[in-house]
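Explain this one:

_____
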Amino acid sequence: MAARPLVARRPNERLAALIQEAGCSNAGLARRVNLCGAEHGLDLRYDKTSVARWLRGQQPRGRAPAVIAEALGRKLGRTVTIDEIGMADGKNLASGVGLQFAPTVPGAIEQVCELWRSDVGRRDFLSGSSVASSALVEPSRDWLITGTDPQVARAGGARVGMTDVEAVRDMTKALTELDHRYGSGHVRPVIVHYLNSVVSGLLGGSYKEAVGRALFAAVSRLTELAGYMAVDTGQPGLAQRYYIQALRLAQAAGDRGFGGYVLAAGMSHLAASLGNPREIAQLARAAQEGARGHVTPRAEAMFLAAEARGHALMGDGTAFTAAAARAVSAMERADGDDPAWIGHFDEAYLADELAHCHRDLGEAGPARRRAEEALAGHPEGRVRRRAIGLLLLAAAQTQQREIEQACDTGTRAVELLGGLRSNRGLEYLEDFQQRLKPFAAEPVVRDFGERAAEPVPA
């Protein structure tokens, strides 16, 4: 009988490099892994011989790779993934990166940091993948049925304080303003590098419970913003990953309200852009249910407007009217005592959402009135939103067969788009041009087509 061939293992050079970087002996790493495992309820009994086997290429089973990565991360003062220690075994680099709603806080940190690292590395499977509806709905179910994490405090790594949290908040505010004014094409590379180079180190640092909750809340907001920027740069497959991780981080922060916002403002709008109206309404209702009692009337108005959008896209005018009326009523009760993440959703934004709904229902008159109301309320700094609002108005004018006025409105939008790098803006422009096709023979339409054909940043 022939001897069973031996399978040669390749030395784990990634693990060796990290051990050297951490200044650990084999015995020292084994002790750290055993202690870290004990915190997770694992009875690990590794020694220096175990580490030597890992270095020769042996792969420990079960949860051990994640514990090894966490132990090394604590020593290094930053988050380390199982990919970095050479123990991903192909799994961590699969297309599932960022699509999981992790059951533990350490798992959530590992998941989101791997997403950021993969994004910076321009991994093709992130941007090239499509959005599966279940990938949006399943995390919302997990969020609904999962309680707040009992503890998020961490020991080991650089000390993180409230000053660090404030820095993340200020960066989020600055990047949001730049995004509104210039479009995500100008800003997204900045936010991704900041998340990967700075924020990952904060999550892997040492912080007390209160600071940890505040940190997760701030990072959740920034991650949600990165998700929107992925939408605005035409990368929906990447956006869904950011939204799922933002939802998980909000859970770690204990912020049910912002979790609802991620569902209603992020995931449901992504579903809308992809033509999945049923999922829009589902996600919006999940936001309402999961955040019930934790949000202000302004946030309620936003959640209800998202639900109304889903009904409108499904052609259900009755359900739309009911949800829209509740949204308007909630906005009338808003008193300004709101968290920062919903403060931007004002009467103009609500009118904007309702204009979309009336357009989708084919109701040109109400769509026009709501679009005009939105444009009257959007400040000049909301350049992308104003461009979209103008194209909504132009679409309504086209439905009313006021072609010359529609082209004039569309021209104003094209002028704004000239200063933006926004894929969403271009999508609205293309939609408007499609609506003009039945009137292609008219001179004003031909003139508009020539103006719109001039290069516009993408």
Q: What stands out?
A: Confidence is low (pLDDT under 50) at residues 1-8, 90-94.
